[in-house]
Every structure is written in structure tokens, then in C-alpha cells.
Amino acid sequence: MRDLPLAGVRVLELGNYIAAPTAGRMLADFGAEVIKIERETGDELRNWRLYDGETSMLFRTINRNKKSVVLDLRTDEGREDVKALAAHCDVVLENFRPGTLEKWGIGPDRLSEANPDLIFVRISAFGQTGPYAQRPGFAAVAEAYGGFRELVGDPDRPPVRVGVSIGDSIAGLYGAFGAVMALYERLRRRDETRGAGGASAPLSDRIVDVALNEAIFSMMESLVPDLGAYGVTRERTGGRMEGIAPSNGYLCEDGSSVVISGNADAIFPRYMRAIGRPDLADDPDLANNDGRWRRRDEIDAAIGAWTAARSRDEVLAVLDDAAVPAGPIYTAADIVSDEQYRARNMVQEFDVDAGGPEPRRVGFPGIVPVLGEASLPIRSVGPDLGEHTDEIRDRFLGGRR
């Protein structure tokens, strides 16, 4: 097995749910030793979408490659153990409401006393500062504040949410990037001050502050610039992307669906000929995107009628012959059987306790990004509750129980 780029980095994860644990997963995937602290009842994610058994596949996925240690942060003993562990770590991840760790006496200032190089990644609803900092909030609320929810769904219906915790996941990615950025800065600082007794960076420079609403807002492309420059307020457009046509999802005769992106000026004429509509291909009003957007409903109706009379495979074969970008809208079963995912080791199987009398062979999503030609192997799926408590106590806490 290749050397992993974050081997030697140790992370103390105090997070719950999805955001901070996603950051921890990213760091663990690439070699960091991530020590996940859980209360006696465990991370609540263990019970989310739990169809059988004691630990959900959601938890197993987001907490892969980590070690689980049970500590009670509400007790003096638990907090002292956290301080002792932090002294041996490079990064602390947390996603409590701002001020919670400080109230418990294990805020960044206290944890830095024994480890002045310690990096803190703090993920919260609205960040550590500002008038909203103390407000509680899950990603659903942050997605609304960030402008995302307003654009999801059909224009004649209330906004909807996507089927995954996208706000938490994006914040987690930013948290992992922030941690690596801070580790690099620490390394650069050491190189610059080598031989000069280099001091640690000030605490403010070692805190990575990720707000869920800002993580979402950063993904909103030109939402705000469009308002300032043109006075345009973007609106929900269903399966379309505003101002781009035709690009949408379409239902096929066999009940499956496809996405077709035929919005480029050079592609559109051959797209229309492929679906038997040369009149649209030759219409001068549809030669550019502005004209197509104005008549998007007419174009989508023509495409939808064509796909509805054909199977998904037939639709994709015709469009492939015409060099029109298109693809199937995959289900989980489609992903598992897809040759491209398999070729890049993007579905990795493990025997897992799923509540039955015997373990089940379960596929888990591979590690992204790929280093080399295929996904790095997952070392372990999310641990059982407290699975590594004794190991970590023996290594860092003098074996005390």
C-alpha cells in the first residue's frame, strides 16, 4: 500500500452528525489518525436511517477510517482526558454551538496550553463571530440563509431540499481544506524560522472558522453579482439551469430518466435532428442560447415527447451517435453495477453487521480524489461505539480507565 499524504497527522474529532465528521473523514481517508470522541450513547448519526442493527450505514460511511473513543465531556474526568489527548494531536475538529467548548473549559485557549501548535477547525451554523453566531442551526437552515433553497424546485411550488445533507457536506469539505491549509502554513512557518527558535503562530491564526451558511453561499456562483450588475434575482427553474437551454432531465418509456445537455449552439441543431425535429434545428430564432431560453417550454416539450416513446438505452444510443452529451439518471443499483465506477475502485465492499444473523457484503463509496489510477482503499468502515477506547487510553492517557 502506498504511503498516504497525511500519514503522521493526528486529529481529535469532537464533532457530531455530519459536518465536522465529514472533515474528519476526508483527513482520515488520506492517512491522518482521526480519534473520534463519542458520548456513551454515541454520535446520533448511528441511528439516522437505521433500518436494522445498531449502527447505520450512514455512520459507517462518514466515519470510515476513524477510531471511536467514548468520553463524557460533561464530566471533569472527560474534559481532562480531552486536554491530554489534544496535547498529542495536530488538529481539533468540532461543530458545537460557539462558546460550548469554552463553557466546558476545553476551548482553543485551554487546549493550546499544552500544545501551542494545535490547529482548530470550528464548524457552526453562522460562524464564531457576528450577530448570528450564537444561533443554533442545522444545514437545512443554513441552506436557506445561503440562498440555495430559493433556487431548488419548480417555480410554481415552494422551495424543496435535495436528498442529501449538502450544506453539512460542503462545510465539511471546507473544514478539511482549512485543516490542510493550516498544516501547510505551520510547516512553512517552521521552515522560515528554523534555527531562530520560531514561536508558534498566534491562536487567531490557528483557528479555521467554517460557517454552514457561508459554505453554501460560496457555491451560489453569480447569485449576488447578478443582482448588483443587472438587477436580476434568480428564480427556481425546476430541472433546468436558468438561462441555459435545452438542458434538463427527461422521463423515458421504461420509467427511467436521462439528463441531456444540448445547450451549445453547435450541438443544438444535430440534437434536434436526432429527435426528428429539423424544423427546430433550422429555426433562426433558436440559433443562440437567448432564443432557446425564451422558447424553453416548447423545446422541452418536443424532447420530452421523444424520450417518452423510447427506452433509456435507445435514447442514449441515438444521442451518442449524434454526439449530444447525455447520461442516465442513476439509482444506487446503477452505480454499483457501472463499469466506470468499478474500474476506478469507487465502490468498495466490506462485510458489515447490518442487523442480520450474519454480516452482509456492503458496497461503500470510494475515496475522492483519486491518487494514481483508482481510489485509495478504505482501511475500515465506521467503527463500533468505543471500539478503540482502550487502545487510545493505553497510548495517550497512561492506561487509566
UniProtKB/TrEMBL annotation:
Gene3D superfamilies: Crotonobetainyl-coa:carnitine coa-transferase, domain 1 (3.40.50.10540), formyl-coa transferase, domain 3 (3.30.1540.10). Its EC number is 2.8.3.-. InterPro entries: CoA-transferase_III_domain (IPR050483), CoA-Trfase_fam_III (IPR003673), CoA-Trfase_III_dom3_sf (IPR044855), CoA-Trfase_III_dom_1_sf (IPR023606). SUPFAM superfamilies: CoA-transferase family III (CaiB/BaiF) (SSF89796). The keyword Thylakoid does not apply. One of its GO terms (molecular function) is transferase activity. Keywords: Transferase. PANTHER family: SUCCINATE--HYDROXYMETHYLGLUTARATE COA-TRANSFERASE (PTHR48207). This is CoA transferase. It comes from Gordonia hydrophobica.
